[in-house]
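Re-run with default settings, no changes from the original entry. Doing this only to confirm the output is reproducible before filing.
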Amino acid sequence: MTIEELAKAYQPGARAREVVAKSNTILLVGISGAGKDTIQTHILKLPEYHRVVTHTTRAPRYNDGVLEQDGREYHFVSKDEMYQLLETKQMIEINQFGSEFYGASVEEFERANQTGKIVVANIDVHGITAMRELGGDAVRALFILPPSYDEWMVRLKKRYPDEASFQDVFATRREIAIAELELALSVPYYHFIINDELERAVRVVDEIAHRTDVFYRKDDEARLLARDILEEIRA
């Protein structure tokens, strides 16, 4: 099998299922510009959290002039190494983007479980679906939302130097946002968190991580806002 075929057909082994089911995991996802990376940065400042460093076959990049480091941003591996990780069932999930592969390893979750820490990962909605199938309620899915469609547009435009640059990518960003929201709203297990004020959003993430996976009235209100934002993006 090629690595593409192996990744597409990949099913985690019994060890992966056991490790995820025994974990306390929060998975962050959100439309581009919602603030999930900033929230993750702040939640990881708390001592009881462990960030999952995912594996990737792509080469390290420069971010703001600083080269990514192995073991910090990602575990950088060759495609042959990734093939071996998949073949020996050492990965929990795997996704292909373009010609490169990304995924979380069993070892990362084992390390968090051994220290009793809460696992934190920032992955896409498809990865969350796979993780929920493995761990059930041990895995909490948190979808970060901007407070409104207008605020989302403001935040998104700030990422680009001018209007032309923004328009070059907006159609793609819009399609991805619609797909992510549609998937998240189609299942009952997402907690939607409105990132209208950073400190409050971080507090809500922390509260969800420390309770059983139950839903309250505020969860329903946030889900309704997610539906409203989806309709505005579609329009």
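Residues 91 and 118 are 19 Å apart (CA to CA). The chain has a mean pLDDT of 92.
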